[in-house]
Amino acid sequence: MLTTLIIKDFAIIDALEISFDDGMSVLTGETGAGKSIIIDALNLLLGGRATTDVIRAGKDKAVVEGSFELDGAWGANARQRLDALDIGHDDELVVRRVVSRSGRNPVLLNGSLATLGTLRDLMKGAIDISGQHEHQSLMDTSEHIRLLDRFSETSDLSRQLAKEFHELSEKRADLDSLREAAKERSRRLDYLRYQLDELSSAELRVGEEDEILEELRTLQSAEELQTLSQSGVSRLYEDDGSICERLDSLLHELHRAEDRSSVVKAVAAQLADARAIIDDATHELRALNDFNAEPQRLEELESRLSTLNKLRRKYNSSVDEIIAQQVEMAEELSLLEGADSRISELAAEIVAIESKMLSAAVTLSERRKSRAKALEGLIEAELADLGMAACRFHTEIQTAEAEPAKLTPRGLDRVEFLLQANQGEALKPLAKVASGGELSRLMLAMKRVLTSSDEVATFVFDEVDAGIGGAVAARVAKALAKVAASNQVLCITHLATIASYADHHFSVSKHAQAGRTVSAIRKLDDTERIGEIARMLGGLSITETTLEHAAEMVERARLRVE
């Protein structure tokens, strides 16, 4: 149950705080006073999206905060969700929404940051808002099947069917694309096979080009390298007075003196290492002297390099990049070669999904039809209570043949509500038979029937009295009072009759303050309430008779007297 609503810098509201109790609370005031802003604020608390348009001019942010008592069925579910989120509650939930011009719009649940999705999930069942737009939804036949599913408790099955239909549509589109691409696929297969045959024959290796160039440089310099090898070996090792000979002589002298100096010993060790390095270098140079530049090998390398260069020019890539392309083409070829089998697999998957959906759609259709009669009876009983006893309400369900092509996201059914407004007339679509007042009462009847399974904590009725008056208004007021006997009800109204049935009465007004328009709301005491109802009855001219009439209406409403 909503206990407190705080609004700051929201539209024309500067700052206000409203405390609500159980029972029926009405909000009244002149048109444009700001009553609908209350609805907009409540929508934010339910997880509605907000734009900077709601921020009061000259302010950086707007704030809406609501406190909820966690009672009833919704409260029990909310406590479980809060516990799962590790958010403390003490049987109370405070929802705070901030809308800022900077774009940072935090959502807080009992002071803890939360996502908009979490808020929406948590607030399901907290507040149900009914407004004039719902009258129009009754005229939208696509909404009728949703309302029937809600009553039939088949909404989950319907949503699952819609999800599967989306999956089915995607698979059908994929299958069409595969079949459409069959000719192009054949041409692409030929191209890939030709390219891969060429590259496979080339037997490319990563780094091969660099290896060939290195070996070619060596072969092309073979004679010069042999000369360098011979000269190096001679100077290092073979000539009289070679580096090795002179180094060996020095080492001999150092070894004789190393017992007398640690420095000499260390130098001797270093030169011994150098002698070993020279031996290794000499060995390498000798191997280079043994190198024989075979003309045949040179031709092989040049031929291979020519092949690689041709491929590089053709593919406009390096050899390593061509190898990567070869891998990609092989993968594509594999996929394309498996396309025919994929078509068969996909077609089989589609058949399986269609079969499953048809079975679910038939079950859903049977459930809808079995519950439609119960809905009709309950709606007609409610309409009779609202002064429309002569009306007949009918749920027309047209079911298509159980064929895959006839499936829709809602199954096989088309649902439309029909109404016989007057005795002797035919059942007709709501758009052709229902007046504004009749739609108001039908919407209220539908709401009362559907809410029996909703376990909603708070109902908000925004101008549900549109198009009605007199005795009908009294019946609507009594119907609202019945809802308020078990649920909290907030009602925005322009009718004195409905206002007279309230347990709590709030007046919404606007006035100029420091050159700006400000909307305000306050709870009326008994005397002020009589005055407000008198205003609703008599406008600007409020007489003693009007006040007496208003007082009498309140008393009769309290006693539930017609």
Give a written overview of the molecule.
It is a single chain. The protein has 562 residues and is α/β, with parallel strands linked by helices. It has a domain at 188-337. Helix content is 58%, strand content 17%. It contains 20 helices and 15 strands. The chain has helices at 35-45, 72-84, 116-123, 132-139, 141-152, 155-180, 182-202, 208-220, 222-238, 243-257, 262-289, 295-315, 319-337, 339-385, 430-433, 436-450, 470-484, 496-500, 526-538, 544-559; strands at residues 2-10, 13-19, 24-28, 61-69, 92-100, 107-109, 112-114, 127-130, 392-399, 413-420, 428-429, 458-462, 488-492, 504-513, 516-523. It has a 6-stranded antiparallel β-sheet. The protein has a 6-stranded mixed β-sheet with strand order 8-12-13-3-14-15. A 3-stranded antiparallel β-sheet has the order 9-10-11. Helix 14 (339-385) crosses helix 16. The longest helix has 47 residues, at 339-385. It is elongated and about 145 Å long. The two termini are 30 Å apart.
How much strand? 15-25%
Largest sheet data: 6 strands, antiparallel
* Average residue pLDDT: 86
Looking at the structure, what is the overall shape?
A: elongated
Uncertain segments are none
**Class from secondary-structure proportions:** alpha/beta
Backbone CA Rg: 44 Å
User: Residue share in helices?
Assistant: 55-70%
Distance between the termini: 30 Å
Number of helices: 20
Strand order of the largest sheet: 2-1-4-5-6-7
DSSP E strands, number: 15
